[in-house]
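Fill in residues.
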């Protein structure tokens, strides 16, 4: 058992050593490194597929970040989503759609950024809002008998991206993430004839995996 633990520690240290460039000179607590810190940044446009309330949905948005020493990004991210991909006319009264968005702070460690293909680990901490609406609202069949409920939630979304250095100022990334929220409180109210009805939306309706593609433009 001790041998396995030791081998695991050695492997982790080896990966860490390979992932980050090492300086040739010794550094102490009181001297400055010989090489200055490089600063850059990028703007990314992201297109994704996810599920909202167990229905297919699109997730669109972007990120803007400050890139530090090519290996760590700090910035802001924002996304919008909707699961009403099938805009059916005259949908049943009980059918509803969910749309909304979220955004906040994001961090992104990057491993081996100068390699043509490498990985990064974007993580988002933020807040969002969601609404449950009549499914055929897009057909302008607005009816005051329907209640359009909304709620605010906190979100945490860790992910992993595989990045391709296409050009000096352009990168393409494909990846996946998992959106985790503190739950939503949504009630969709409708009329079945003259009788009011209520459907309770699942609290974890927004918790789901997302697969995405990002176009990144900037100074890397």
């Amino acid at each position: 058992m001790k041998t396995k633990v030791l081998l695991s520690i050695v492997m982790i240290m080896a990966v860490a050593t390979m992932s980050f460039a090492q300086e040739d000179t010794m550094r102490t607590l009181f001297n400055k490194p010989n090489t200055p810190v490089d600063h850059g940044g990028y703007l990314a446009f992201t297109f994704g597929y996810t599920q909202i309330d167990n229905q297919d949905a699109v997730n669109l948005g972007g990120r803007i970040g400050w890139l530090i020493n090519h290996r760590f990004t700090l910035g802001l991210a924002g996304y919008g989503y909707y699961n009403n991909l099938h805009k059916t006319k005259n949908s049943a009264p009980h059918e509803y759609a969910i749309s909304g968005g979220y955004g906040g702070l994001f961090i992104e460690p990057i491993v081996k950024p100068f390699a043509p293909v490498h990985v990064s680990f974007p993580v988002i901490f933020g807040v969002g809002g969601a609404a449950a609406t009549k499914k055929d609202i897009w057909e302008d069949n607005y009816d005051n008998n329907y209640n359009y409920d909304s709620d605010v939630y906190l979100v945490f979304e860790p992910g992993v991206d595989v990045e391709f250095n296409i050009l000096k100022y352009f990168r393409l990334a494909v990846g996946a993430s998992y959106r985790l929220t503190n739950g939503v409180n949504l009630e969709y109210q409708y009329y079945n004839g003259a009788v009011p009805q209520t459907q309770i939306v699942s609290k974890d309706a927004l918790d789901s995996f997302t697969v995405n593609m990002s176009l990144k433009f900037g100074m890397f």
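Confidence is low (pLDDT under 50) at residues 1-26.
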